[in-house]
Amino acid sequence: MLTGEYIAIGVFALIAMVFPVITFLLSRLLRPTKPEPDKYLTYECGLIPFGDARKPYDVQYYLFALLFVVFDVEAVVLFPWAEIFKSFGNITLLLIEGIIFIVVLALGLIYAWREKALEWR
Questions:
Q1: 105 and 71 in contact (C-beta within 8 Å)?
Q2: 17-38 residue pLDDT tens
Q3: What are the backbone angles phi and psi of residue 8, rounded to the nearest 5°?
Q4: Which of 52-56, 74-78, 100-104 has the lowest mean pLDDT?
Q5: Entry pTM
Q6: What is the mean pLDDT of the chain?
Q7: CA atoms of 117 and 121, how far apart (whole Å)
Q8: How far apart are CA 20 and CA 3, in angstroms?
Q9: Who's near 109: CB < 8 A, 6+ residues apart?
Q10: pLDDT-based confidence at 49, cuts 50/70/90?
Q11: Is the dihedral of CA 102, 108, 112, 118 positive or negative?
Q12: Are 118 and 71 in contact (CB under 8 A)?
């Protein structure tokens, strides 16, 4: 048995599936097409591009990004942990879990420091 709420969800789902298709087809039909070779050039502040734009990045960027993600996740985990600290029944268990979490991340930081991953070369 379908109620009005489920019918409304079905209508919105149908619109969500049909709208992008209609938009794509209308944009293909209504847009002007004037192919010119200059349109396919990369825009670089008005200068004509030269050389290959796909150059490999230094591994140092990836290491910094990885360290950022690790410590960002740490902050996301520790804020709720600190919020429920007082209302949790067994404070000792919660404190031990928090200390283990911080120690594991500290060991990772020490390892990155010893491998000189934090120094810009």
A1: yes
A2: 999 999 999 988 888 888 787 7
A3: -65, -40
A4: 52-56
A5: 0.48
A6: 82
A7: 9
A8: 27
A9: 67
A10: low
A11: negative
A12: no
Distance of CA 108 to the CA centre of its chain: 22
* Token digits of residue 39: 């349109």
Max CA separation in the chain (angstroms): 71
CA-only gyration radius of the chain, Å: 27
Q: Are 81 and 75 in contact (CB under 8 A)?
A: no
- Assign 3-class secondary structure to the chain: CCCHHHHHHHHHHHHHHHHHHHHHHHHHHHCCCCCCHHHHCCCECCECCCCCCCCCCCHHHHHHHHHHHHHHHHHHHHHHHHHCCCCCCCHHHHHHHHHHHHHHHHHHHHHHHHCCCCCCC
Instruction: State how far the Cα of 75 lies from the Cα of 86, in Å rounded to an integer.
Output: 18
Whether 60 and 121 have beta carbons less than 8 Å apart is answered as yes
